Amino acid sequence: MTIDITGISNENEFYTHHYLSAILEKDLKDVFKQWNQRSQDTGTPQPQALLGSLRKPFFTALTSLEREKDTQQRLSIQRKFAARLLSALGYEYHFQVVDLDDAGSIPLLGGIQKPNGAPDLWIMESLADIEDSADPLEMSIDPAQYPEGKADTSPRGRIIMGQAIEEVITRHVFGRSEPPRWVLLMEFSRVLLLDRTKWHEKRVLRFDIREILDRRETTTLQAMAALLHKDSICPTDGTPYWIPWMKIPTNMPLPYPKI
User: Which of 32, 69, 137, 142 has its CA 20 to 30 A from that of 160?
Assistant: First the structure.
């Protein structure tokens, strides 16, 4: 079975092209066997089946989103679907506002902490624009994304208002005194996976949710699930399913100065 990664963009070689074309399929075979065995043992659907079941909810929500002009209502539609997508990928939707040292705070849809309490993964959101054409990294954080639509307007908070999310991540998230290793950036129809150790080269793994769900190709859904699932990136027992590049020195310096 050849894995079809249509709808998954390996921008600036987040993985090497050789890995995706020649090695990925072999590495994922054991993951799929584990999922199948767990499904048989527990009766729960496999992750790719959970993703596939989101096709109808996605396009129903998309129709509502295309008709809705109010920012708060659009955000509500987007977050309801995000919660379902995150659940399918093994994450818990948990809205929170976190501090960015000297740059105010940002809203998150969830996150994973290391055993010592340090952040391992942050789930950020980019509010889908009406035309759904802008790159999620080029969007800025909207005041509507904060509780009651009220952003941090203190001198510290104003540092990030109006900045592109790409700059916020570079300077204030990965430049934080205790930064997460991973960022999942979620927009309604797109999900981006960022790794702090690769971000200085702007390597990004992009997932076009609309295309992936519309095509309903099983191997693509399997690949998306394996590449984004919590058990692949931040497993509870600390042992990743398969990711060969997870191990890095614990004393690796930050690629960016703390701003």
Answer: 69
